């Protein structure tokens, strides 16, 4: 599964062929079809495996583990800055970049990834609503807008890593982005 995940991460869904996958996985096409049914099913399983690995799980981990929303978003941004350009794996985020050029016949693959990204967006918004209710954010804060802002920054950081941005550059982006955090009511 790791070889398939890496290949989809490097090339995206559309540009990864069955031949590429079977070569990388060291299996025959018949074995791939017997184990996974088709390329889409293998892709979805690879994405789920990615989501359980450190490079994919850091967002959910930060939201669940940090005591404040600001600490959670700070951690997410700092970890993205280190994880996305890490040379130990393809740059960026698999769920952000794997379906950028999908044909109409594979629109469900793009929808699958969009749904995963929107699930993260909803988790951001939920955490920010809680922060507002607890007084961590001002009463005038817009949790939906803040969630969208942080999702946009994180997606942009993923693309910048794919374009060659370093951890130092992305850390600076994280620092600047977090400065947009609204001050709590007095």
Summarize the structure.
Keywords: DNA-binding, Transcription, Transcription regulation. The chain has helices at 2-11, 18-25, 29-36, 39-52, 54-65, 69-83, 94-97, 107-133, 143-162, 167-178.
- Note the run of SSEs as H and E: HHHHHHHHHH
Number of helix segments?
A: 10
Shape annotation: elongated
- Note poorly predicted spans: none
Mean pLDDT: 94
Instruction: From the 3D structure, determine the CATH topology of the largest domain.
Output: Tetracycline Repressor, domain 2
User: How far is the first residue's CA from the last residue's CA?
Assistant: 51 Å
CATH class of the largest domain: Mainly Alpha
Name of the CATH homologous superfamily of the largest domain: Tetracycline Repressor, domain 2
């Amino acid at each position: 599964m790791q070889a398939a995940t890496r290949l989809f991460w490097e090339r995206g869904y559309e540009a990864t062929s069955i031949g590429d996958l079977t070569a990388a996985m060291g299996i025959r096409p018949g074995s791939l079809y017997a184990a996974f049914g088709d390329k889409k099913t293998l892709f979805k399983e690879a994405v789920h495996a990615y989501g359980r690995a450190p490079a994919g799980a850091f967002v959910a981990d930060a939201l669940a583990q940090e005591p404040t929303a600001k600490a959670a978003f700070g951690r997410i941004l700092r970890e993205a800055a280190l994880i996305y350009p890490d040379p130990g794996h393809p740059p960026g985020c698999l769920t952000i970049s794997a379906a950028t050029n999908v044909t109409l016949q594979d629109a469900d693959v793009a929808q699958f990834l969009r749904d995963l990204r929107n699930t993260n967006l909803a988790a951001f918004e939920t955490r920010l609503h809680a922060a507002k209710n607890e007084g961590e954010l001002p009463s005038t804060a817009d949790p939906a807008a803040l969630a969208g802002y942080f999702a946009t920054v994180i997606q942009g950081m993923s693309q910048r890593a794919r374009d060659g941005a370093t951890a130092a550059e992305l850390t600076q982006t994280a620092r600047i982005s977090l400065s947009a955090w609204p001050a709590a009511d007095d």
